[in-house]
Amino acid sequence: MIENISIQKMELKDLQHVLEIESHSFTTPWSHYAFLTELRDNSFASYFVAKIKSPDKKDEIVGYAGMWIIMDEAHITTIAVEERYRRMGVGEKLLRHIIETAKEKGAVGMTLEVKESNMAARNLYEKLGFEIRGIRKKYYIEDNEDALIMWKDDLINDVEK
């Protein structure tokens, strides 16, 4: 587990590092324009980066997450961690942060889609109270894999685990 992880609002200057992680994490990565649009033009969107202090004392972006909040529902749009920092608590810290942010913004439920085969992500989501509620058949274009639709209800009364 990494102790010195800080979560900060994603800024335009973060996009180069975010795009590097994105390209190594997904077979169909989001474009610079997609992230730019989310940050500049989408009033429903909230995006964050996870940073750690590198040996040269600079903040290094090691992960990111984003969500939309529409009415009282939050939808996680993306979450990724740089490969060498996976399974070290970065993804969990990001996920906990966006859950708390969603609660603060009035969301009562939260949803996401995850590849059926992505057991690491599924285990994290289940650990934090998400449950499988449906399937989107052939959701992922690159390989026609199904997406599991997961929900976390009652964010207001959710107790930090």
Structure description:
This protein has 161 residues and is α+β, with helices and mostly antiparallel strands. It has a single domain, classed as Gcn5-related N-acetyltransferase (GNAT) (Aminopeptidase, 3-Layer(aba) Sandwich), CATH 3.40.630.30. Helix content is 28%, strand content 37%. It has helices spanning 15-25, 32-41, 90-104, 119-127, and strands at residues 6-9, 45-53, 59-70, 73-81, 109-115, 131-140, 145-152. A seven-stranded mixed sheet has the order 1-2-3-4-5-7-6. Strand 2 (45-53) and strand 3 (59-70) form a beta hairpin. The longest helix has 15 residues, at 90-104. The protein starts with 5 loop residues before the first strand and ends in a 9-residue tail after the last strand. 27% of the residues are buried. The model has no long low-confidence stretch (mean pLDDT 92).
The string of secondary-structure elements, in order, is EHHEEEHEHEE
Number of strands: 7
Sketch the major β-sheet. 7 strands, mixed
Helix content: 25-40%
Q: What sort of overall outline do the alpha carbons produce when their principal axes are compared? A: globular
Using the coordinates shown, work out and report the CATH topology. Answer: Aminopeptidase
Low-pLDDT sequence parts = none
Oligomer: single chain
* Radius of gyration (Å): 15 Å
Measured between the Cα atoms of the first and last residue, the distance is 16 Å
What is the CATH architecture assignment? 3-Layer(aba) Sandwich
The CATH superfamily is Gcn5-related N-acetyltransferase (GNAT)
Number of domains: 1
Order of strands, widest sheet? 1-2-3-4-5-7-6
Task: Please identify the top-level CATH class.
Answer: Alpha Beta
Mean pLDDT: 92
Q: Total number of helical segments?
A: 4
Taken as a percent bin, the fraction of beta residues is 35-45%
Structural class based on helices, strands and sheet pairing: alpha+beta
